Amino acid sequence: MITAINPTDGKVLAKYALHDDAYVDTALSGAAAAQGEWRKVAIEKRVTLLTAMAKVLREGKARYAEMITREMGKPIAEAEGEIEKCAYNCDFYAEHAPKYLADEPLASNATESFVEFDPLGVVLAIMPWNYPFWQFFRFAAPSFAAGNGAILKHANNVPQCALAIEDIMREAGCPEGLFKTLLIEPAKVAAIIADDRIAAVTLTGSTEVGAIVASQAGKALKKQVLELGGSDPFIVLADADLEQAATVAVKARYINVGQSCVNAKRFIVEESIADRFVDLFCSGVAKLKIGDPMERDTNIGPMARANLMTGLHAQVEKTVAAGATLKMGGKPMEGDGFYYPPTVLDNVRPDMVAFCEETFGPVAAIIRVKDAEEAVLLANQTEFGLGSALWTEDLGRARKLASDIDAGAVFINGMVASDPRYPFGGIKRSGYGRELGVYGIREFVNIKTVWIGPAKVAK
Question: What is the SS3 assignment for 324?
Fold first, then answer.
């Protein structure tokens, strides 16, 4: 049994029976058969499915957003933004996929030679709860456009969202069987990865789970894309626009109640302007409204699960015990639900938990450094490498420093975000492979060389 719990009050929303082995087997067979036909459909016709997906998402935005908020606590305005972003992603690939997957001519000794991009097959998508619609549609739009099918194993605390995605695909006219949601326990995933009807795996989730899935997929010689944890640095140099940097920093840390791999988590600030930045940052944090996520002016709702809240609090306690300064927040809120207030830790050092570990919730760690070189050194002093932000008015220096930062993305004077126009992914223990952009759509294709003779005779 899978149970959906409202994190606002801890009450049960719904319970769902798990799919049995027979259901899983039928789903896999159906997806494999449907994908065999889908790959034959011209891409110009395949992308009409994406346009229909966008339409269904927008028409049901209010309902889907409320579902997100009820199941995992995202403030309703952010949940609506998530649905719109999914629709935009579908529209983007509907427009650009034919160009991204068009044959590419090659210069060679052949009469003609080119690269074509063929679908791999059915992709198993293992998705998290923090962006329950976006994480799936981020993968799905380019994958369906490329001619693949998909099986979704969603996080078990968002079963309503998982089943709603299946309804959306059906309403959009997805061919029968090409996509299926499975409600199963994590222990069942290994057998699905190993199944010959699955061609590849994509996972967004924790680094620990990513290592397990990578091992299972590697053993089966299946292609993988992994988007895992992050402890993104937000570097503020002495010549930065401090008011703007602090304003963006508050959003970068506390959007989605701090529960995102690409939330800014470590704020690395030059010592000469650190006091001023901390004052501005704390002033902005104090203005955030904590409350019912269904209210439109709420900025901070509950964390998604009770165990996430208690784990985060343990990290805060350890960091303060090690000598960090607690500026704001610092303990779970009384009353119903899984509420943890926006928390600010100052004078955090590299040997402290809030620096060394990913803090997946509304906790900001401020680290003071003497100069830009030390800032980059500490930014890289992490096992993660997903996103990063760098604030300075000297763009020439910023470009040079960006090359020294170990991350999949560097945003200069801006907030890290995913966008279908450019690739998204990480290095080190933040995973590998890319989603979005032209690079994302080519992750789950066979990049095939076609050589047509006879060979040209050298003159």
Answer: coil
Range 446-458 burial, b when 16+ CB lie within 10 A, else e? eeeeeeeeeeeee
Question: Which positions ≥6 away from 196 have C-beta within 8 Å?
Answer: none
Residue 8 in contact with residue 302, Cβ under 8 Å? yes
Question: Mind listing the pLDDT tens digit for each residue in 48-72?
Answer: 999 999 999 999 999 999 999 999 9
Contact 34, 99 (CB under 8 A): no
CA–CA distance, 378 with 355 (Å, rounded to integer): 9
Nearest-angstrom CA–CA distance, 19 and 22: 8
Under the banding of pLDDT at 50, 70 and 90, the label for residue 458 is confident
Burial classification of residue 277, based on how many CB atoms lie within 10 Å of its CB (0-12 exposed, 13-18 middle, 19 or more buried): buried
Tokens of 280: 């501005």
Count the neighbouring beta carbons within 10 Å of the beta carbon of residue 105: 10
Q: How many CB atoms lie within 10 A of CB 285?
A: 24
Of 351, 366, 394, 393, the C-alpha closest to 250 is 366
- CA 39 to the chain's CA centroid: 27
- Residues labelled as active-site residues: 227, 261
Distance CA 413, CA 435 (A): 23
Q: Which two tokens stand for residue 325?
A: 């300064």
Residue 184's pLDDT is what? Answer: 98
CA 342 from chain centre, in angstroms, equals: 22
